[in-house]
Amino acid sequence: MNFIKNVLATFVGIILFCMMSFFLLLIIGVVASAGSSSSGKSTKSNSIIKLDLENVSNDYGGSIYIEDFDYKETNNDGLINVLQAIDYAKTDDKIKGISIENNATSLGSTQRKAIVDKLAEFKKTGKFVVAYADYYSQGEYYLASVADTVYMNPMGSIDFKGLASEVLYMKDLQEKTGIHMEVIRHGKYKSAVEPFLQQTMSDENREQLTVLLNSIWESYVGDISKNRKISVETLNNIATNLDARNANLALQNKLIDKIAYIDQYQNGIKKALDIKYDDDINEIDILDYIKDVNLNIKKFSAKDQIAVIFAQGEIQGGEGNVNTIGEGSINRALKEARKNDKIKAVVLRVNSPGGSALTSDIIWREIELTKKVKPVIVSMGDVAASGGYYIACNANKIFAEPGTITGSIGVFGMVPNFKKVADKFGVNAEAVKTHENATGYSVFEEMSPKYKQTLTESIEIIYDTFISRVAEGRKMDKAKVDEMAQGRVWTGTMAKQLGLVDELGSLDDAITYAAKLVKTDDYKVSLYPEYEVELADLFRKFLGMSVSSVKEDAIKSEIGTENYELLQRMNYLKQSKGIQAMMPYHLNIK
């Protein structure tokens, strides 16, 4: 009998082992292919790069390490990889030009600017850049404006009309549902929670948004003016009168160079490549090109290194991942940079609207420790606000793009309250306690004066710490920081005038500065952080991906995309733990 039991146990064990091995290989396969649509193509002679950025969304594609199997995987699909590839293509004899064809991307304004600047450098080598679209959004047109020749479909148009920002207010919704958000904040401009406090936009928020949008627009239209050799005044008139609403008007106003169909556009490329019209164009997608030349881009023989650490996404704490900032991965990267003798300086690339005040301070401390050993330079991306600015303020030098959204120096605390819902449905919460404040806060009771006082005290302490960190890091008077803070957001251009940043420039500029600071011209750029994950986490993520995607699509189709975004916004703020240093990140600029 025991023999049979042992045989069965062994048989079952073998089956389970095979199943686990299968799922393990499947998961590793998913991880290995995540974030990249590259098919491993090789670059042929007389080729062009197709600048398809649909699958490029982050500054950094991310590197993960699976502890259970000592397995590492790096995704080279970040903006930094695209910029490095375009830079490499300048001297690649196989590449003759770059095609921006029906480009659709979720990249932000400063990310697009980085690509525009890199394409302008590419053109200076004598190689060509051309662009075609059936329809141009404002962001897509901005990217295309750097091209030598801009084509558009005869039935196309350019959505060139200026910028607008839409903010959803939910005070009445709370009244109707009975779900109330208890909010305590410091900063009259701290509009991250304003939609829960009132039904209309405050004068302060309208003021800051107006200034913000005008500043971003000036930067945007200034680059187009330079690229297209059209005055800013003329471009503003075109936007006001919608004079790019069809192909003929766009051509007449010199926003495009040619009206053509896609086959005519391709014939133009064939002419530039000096090949016959019935020949195929040797075209390689940007992500395929990155994969093909990746080893050539890296300078393995370089004597020194500049570490670029990417802090991107909301600050949530924990390990973090490619879309969120956690002290685990960021601080580990900072410590490694400190201990590695080959790394001479650190560039912290911040692209974050903020989040957990506690996590922000933990990262701030690690930067302080790193500064004592090696210089830390900050490069700000699309947004480095609130907690994002907190972790940047003590750097040796801060670079920002003109359109970077920064500042938002303020904090808030918010908790949901279901008292009205409970009363409506006859729910009464009773508590038994050993001490006066043992219950803390109950979502089924109105916030007590004592709890409100305690929360307010915590917020005031964190706010005071925040402005103290800024004053110390920026070598400014604390009272002056408080005056310009109050949760208000600024663009990079305005922040430089106020002394919140040092220079206007790109990530490349920050890296170049860091190299000069440590007196090295023989260096390679090493990308961090590396995110540590366990097999169990990957397994849960793998099983949940398809279910989550189906659920999201179902909800969107049922209630609409805008209502779904509203729901997501409410859920995020309800689930936020601890006091937040968060900008009004749900800034929908159109």
From TrEMBL:
The keyword Protein biosynthesis does not apply. Its main location: membrane. Pfam families: Peptidase_S49. Keywords: Hydrolase, Membrane, Protease, Serine protease, Transmembrane, Transmembrane helix. One of its GO terms (biological process) is signal peptide processing. The gene is sppA. This is Signal peptide peptidase SppA. Gene3D superfamilies: 2-enoyl-CoA Hydratase, Chain A, domain 1 (3.90.226.10), 6.20.330.10. It is found in: Membrane. One of its GO terms (cellular component) is membrane.
